[in-house]
Design a protein that fits this description.
The complex is a heterodimer of chains A (about 180) and B (about 180). By secondary structure, chain A is of the alpha/beta class. Chain A has helices at about 20-30, 40-50, 70-75, 95-105, 120-130, and strands at about 1-5, 10-15, 35-40, 55-60, 90, 110-115, 135, 140-145, 160. Chain A has one domain (about 5-145): 3-Layer(aba) Sandwich (Rossmann fold), CATH 3.40.50. Chain B is about 70% helix and about 5% strand. Chain B is extended. Classes of the chains: A alpha/beta (about 180), B mainly alpha (about 180). At the A-B interface, strand 1, helix 1, helix 5, strand 7 and strand 9 of A face strand 1, helix 2, strand 2, helix 3 and helix 4 of B.
Chain lengths: ~180, ~180
């Protein structure tokens, strides 16, 4: 049995809306986090990731210069920055499926729709800490394993090499046990 | 490139998938002995308490956001909803859609959700109905001015319902006009 020591976690929050950043910072501080850095667009978000090496990045999608999806792609580019494995939570008012899919294809670890609640944000962070996913590299993708469920009827060829452990987790139902 | 390397690469299927273990280990970094359920409940309760304390600012924040929305509306209308002005209007509306419920104004959030749909789905600038845009923006401003928080206001509820139905009907008509074969 274990609990999360939020004071050990460093966050970068990227959102162009100052009120939204304040809300997320308030929630994280109340969870116990003490190191929270902020950025107001994709470009300064990328700089903040390089400068502060956060444990978790929380980013909006719709932002000037480049958006949260592009930011995710840049971070996940193995030839780009120094932190391609950083867990990324996309926090957006875009709730339509196409944006969730786009974020996933860019390499986001979790997707959380606004309006944000304390409980939903906590569960996403908890899932990241307790149930880390392996990363997948293909010609067109580098990021967390996108398979969140196993089709027991799948009879095709297994296309993956290496360790093939699955982590199938619903963030809203995750239990914090190790 | 040596022959051996070439052969190795040739043996890799085009859609090869490699599983990579992430070096990020947050379990070791931040998991400590303790009751996870109690800790989660306490952390969430602390956060809700902190949001309660922050809520003294929410009316002012919503006022700021609604002023920004009205300004973006004015500029978009005078520019004929051309791309840049329309994007700023969408952005202002999208921000309210995302945060107004957290700030206690769920009706304003949903009105802006409807406005975002209108601006996203009607792609021709000249086909965006200024009156319908005005009605959305004015509704948000009225909700803020009259402090329509929560979901208990029947007039606001009716107004929201009407705005959404008119908007959805307009979007549907536009889709039929643009691609009659697809929607028939």
């Amino acid at each position: 049995m274990a609990k999360i020591a939020f004071d050990e976690l460093r966050f970068v929050v990227v959102d162009d809306n100052t009120h939204m950043r304040r809300i997320v910072r308030t929630l994280l501080r109340a969870f116990g986090s003490r190191e929270i850095y902020e950025a107001e667009d994709g470009a300064s978000g990328l700089e903040a990731v390089e400068a502060y090496s956060p444990d978790i990045l929380i980013s909006d999608i719709m932002m000037p210069i480049f958006d949260g999806i592009e930011l995710t792609r840049m971070i996940r580019n193995p030839e780009g920055g120094r932190h391609p494995f950083i867990p990324i939570i996309i926090l957006s008012a875009y709730s339509e499926k196409k944006y969730v899919v786009e974020a996933r294809e860019a390499g986001a670890t979790e997707f959380l729709c606004k309006p944000v609640s304390a409980s939903a944000l906590y569960r996403r962070i908890q899932n990241i800490v307790v149930n880390p996913r392996d990363f997948i590299r293909t010609k067109t993708y580098f990021g967390p394993d996108r398979r969140r469920s196993v089709n027991p009827n799948y009879a095709g060829v297994e296309r993956r090499s290496g360790d093939n452990t699955m982590h199938i987790v619903d963030p809203d139902k995750v239990a914090l046990e190790i | 490139m040596s022959n051996m390397q070439t052969q190795t690469q040739a043996a890799q299927p085009e859609n090869a998938v490699k599983v990579v273990n992430s070096p990020v280990d947050l379990k070791s970094k931040c998991l400590r002995p303790g009751n996870p359920s109690t800790a989660a409940l306490q952390a969430i309760a602390n956060a809700e308490q902190a949001m309660d304390e922050l809520s003294v600012n929410f009316t002012d924040w919503m006022s700021d956001e609604s002023i920004r929305l009205a300004k973006a509306r004015d500029e978009a209308k005078s520019a004929g909803f051309v791309l840049a002005s329309r994007e700023e209007l969408f952005h202002a509306s999208h921000d309210i859609k995302g945060q107004a419920s957290t700030l206690g104004y769920p009706f304003a959030a949903e009105v802006c959700g409807s406005l975002c749909r209108l601006l996203e789905m009607v792609t021709e600038a000249k086909r965006i109905p200024p009156l319908l845009v005005d009605q959305h923006v004015d509704a948000v401003r009225a909700f803020v001015r009259e402090d329509v928080t929560g979901r208990e206001n029947p007039v606001a509820s009716k107004l929201l319902e009407r705005l959404c139905s008119v908007t959805d009907a307009y979007i549907s008509d536009e889709a039929a006009r643009v691609s009659p074969a697809k929607t028939a």
